[in-house]
Q: What sequence folds into this?
């Protein structure tokens, strides 16, 4: 018999691995499996917060959509919305924005021109390639004089009427010295798609990538960096498409019983009847 601590750990693992767009459904199912809802309630605040930030969910605000991310987290329920020039208060349990205030010193004025340039290019990139996507860009000046810009992109589509949901997440960290050398870009891309009509099939992949782009003034640095990011992500899209095409022609076919040479399906009920008939005749 599992202890209460073990049950909570199992339940938390289920919740944190809930497919995009299905978190509350998994919450309901997990509650039904536990001997008491109080076991889940004790850890709900931390679990919901971890899920919302790692999934980088997009939420509506009075100034457009914002992302709930670890990179923009100021406290357990306050998140920086650089594009909206505000700090939003977020209820992780209800998954709703409950308030906001104007930014007051949260953006580094020394590098704001670079952060804003990256934000403009990230928005253009999202509009072109992720029509359902939202981008958030954060920046800070490091003690060694380097500038660090973090570009977060989250794009989700939910289609429960056709039994599928999915989310694309990418986080790119750009590190550089203004007007000097190259920009180092380190990214983590996560794709999670769930298809569940008469079954349960998931694509869940994490890919780490690195590339570089030329540095310069704020505008050219941002343009070059987003071009480099675009190239990497488009290559990943292409490789996923190729993998699925290959699976359709090889892996999935290997799972099915091959058709006979005349390409007609075998009538197994008829075959069984022949066998029984032959045995009776003997």
A:
């Amino acid at each position: 018999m599992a202890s209460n601590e073990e049950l909570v750990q199992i339940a938390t693992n289920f919740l944190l691995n809930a497919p995009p767009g299905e978190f509350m459904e998994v919450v309901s199912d997990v509650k039904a499996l536990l001997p008491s809802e109080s076991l889940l309630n004790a850890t709900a605040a931390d679990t919901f917060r971890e899920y919302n930030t790692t999934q980088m969910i997009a939420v509506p605000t009075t100034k457009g959509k914002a992302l709930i991310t670890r990179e923009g987290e100021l406290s357990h329920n306050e998140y920086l919305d650089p594009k909206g020039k505000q700090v939003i208060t977020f209820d992780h349990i209800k998954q709703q924005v409950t308030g906001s205030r104007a930014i007051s010193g949260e953006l580094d004025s020394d590098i704001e021109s670079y952060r804003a340039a990256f934000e403009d290019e990230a928005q253009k990139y999202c509009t072109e390639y992720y029509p359902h996507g939202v981008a958030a860009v954060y920046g800070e000046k490091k003690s060694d004089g380097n500038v660090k810009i973090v570009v977060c992109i989250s794009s989700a589509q939910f289609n429960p009427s056709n039994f599928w949901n999915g989310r694309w997440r990418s986080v790119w960290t750009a590190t550089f010295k203004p007007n000097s050398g190259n920009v180092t870009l380190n990214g983590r891309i996560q794709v999670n798609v769930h298809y569940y009509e008469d079954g349960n099939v998931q694509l869940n992949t994490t890919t780490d990538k690195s590339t570089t782009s030329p540095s310069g003034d704020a505008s050219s640095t941002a343009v070059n960096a987003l071009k480099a990011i675009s190239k990497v992500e488009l290559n990943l899209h292409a490789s996923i498409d190729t993998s699925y095409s290959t699976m359709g022609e090889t892996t999935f076919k290997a799972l099915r019983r091959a058709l006979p040479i005349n390409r007609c399906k075998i009538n197994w009920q008829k075959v069984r009847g022949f066998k029984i008939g032959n045995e009776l005749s003997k």
In short: The chain has a mean pLDDT of 90. The first helix runs from residue 4 to 16. The chain has three domains: 1-42, 58-106, 112-252. The CA atoms of residues 251 and 274 lie 33 Å apart.
